[in-house]
Design brief:
Number of helices: 7
Family: Belongs to the protein kinase superfamily.
Radius of gyration: 19 Å
Strand order of the largest sheet: 1-2-3-4-6-5
Number of domains: 2
Keywords: ATP-binding, Kinase, Nucleotide-binding, Serine/threonine-protein kinase, Transferase
Oligomer: single chain
Organism: Rotaria magnacalcarata
CATH architecture of the largest domain: Orthogonal Bundle
Distance between the termini: 49 Å
Shape: globular
CATH superfamily of the largest domain: Transferase(Phosphotransferase) domain 1
Protein name: Protein kinase domain-containing protein
GO molecular function, one term: ATP binding
CATH class of the largest domain: Mainly Alpha
CATH topology of the largest domain: Transferase(Phosphotransferase), domain 1
Number of strands: 13
Strand content: 15-25%
Helix content: 25-40%
């Protein structure tokens, strides 16, 4: 299933037969299709990950890909009943490809300007707050379950037709033991949305990060939704962004041309020192989250 599946093709999963209607998008190792259940006619999205490869030189990477898919699926299934902001899973299967049948929505990225100078208008303040409250709540439920997302960004969030936010990708998420707020692990993610501590190793040890790194990502998302651009947009490459974050030793400079409530929430989330950032629980009672100003 490494090739693109054309409309009309059928996939038989654990609990039903699904017909491909078209492609929604694709990533490095996955493709997402619009589809429907042939019995119930319910429209949904099918995420298909290629878990096999004929080329011996790249076959080893598919082992870790399979493990990553299985871990993501376990997280998604475990969080179904405890986090209303996790995408709803209808069906799944693991054969040569890993397939997840899930809710279909529009990526949050679609609602944001592609460039800071884009003619696309910024989101209305009411919409920003509507999305923000849900993002904070979604992360709050994640952290209650001791799960760190570690790659919160518009591509990993969808908006349902009724305006509800869903978290759709937990491929590099991890769990923390009780009473532990961070741990050392190799960084993976997206530089624009990653916290400075995710890039700071010491004495040859991997970086140490956890819940507060997700809070930083929330701050970046709020900045982008409110201003139409990310704080690091002026840096041209991922290497430049990582270098900047690795050598950042103060709070991130942010746009002041926003409402006082938005500015205060952003400023708190984007503190350089992780322990100075609020928890998701604290963010949920911030005046901007509660009142929209």
């Amino acid at each position: 299933m490494g090739d693109v599946m054309l409309p009309g093709r059928h996939l038989n999963l654990r609990h039903g037969l699904y017909k491909i209607d078209g492609m929604l998008g694709f990533g490095l190792h996955s493709k997402v299709y619009s589809a429907h259940n042939t019995t119930t006619k319910q429209s949904l999205a099918l995420k298909v990950i290629d878990l096999e490869h004929q080329n011996v030189t790249v076959r080893a990477s598919t082992i870790s890909r399979r493990q990553s898919f299985q871990k993501e699926l376990q997280y998604l299934l475990r969080l179904q009943t405890v986090n209303p902001y996790i995408v709803r899973i209808y069906d799944y299967d693991i054969k040569n490809s890993g397939v997840i049948a899930m809710e279909q929505g529009t990526p949050l990225r679609y609602y944001l300007p592609k460039y800071p100078t884009s003619s696309t208008p910024n989101l209305p303040p009411q919409t920003v707050n509507h999305f923000w409250r849900q993002l904070v709540d979604g992360v709050r439920f994640l952290h209650r379950a001791r799960v760190v997302h570690s790659d919160l960004k518009p591509e990993n969030l969808i908006v349902l037709p009724d305006g509800q936010i869903r978290i759709i990708d937990l491929g590099i998420s991890f769990t923390l033991p009780r009473m532990v707020a961070a741990k050392r692990r190799k960084w993976a993610g997206t530089p624009d949305y990653s916290a400075p501590e995710m890039h700071k190793s010491s004495r040859g040890l991997p970086p140490k990060y956890g819940y507060k790194s997700d809070i930083w990502s929330l701050g970046i998302l709020l900045h982008e939704m409110s201003t139409g651009y990310r704080p690091l947009y002026a840096l041209n490459s991922n290497c430049e962004k990582i270098f900047y974050l690795k050598h950042l030793y103060r709070d991130l400079p942010i746009d002041t041309n926003v409402s006082p409530g938005v500015y205060d929430a952003m400023k708190r989330c984007l503190r350089f020192i992780p322990k100075h950032r609020p928890t998701a629980e604290q963010l949920s009672s911030h005046p901007y989250t509660v009142n929209g100003f």
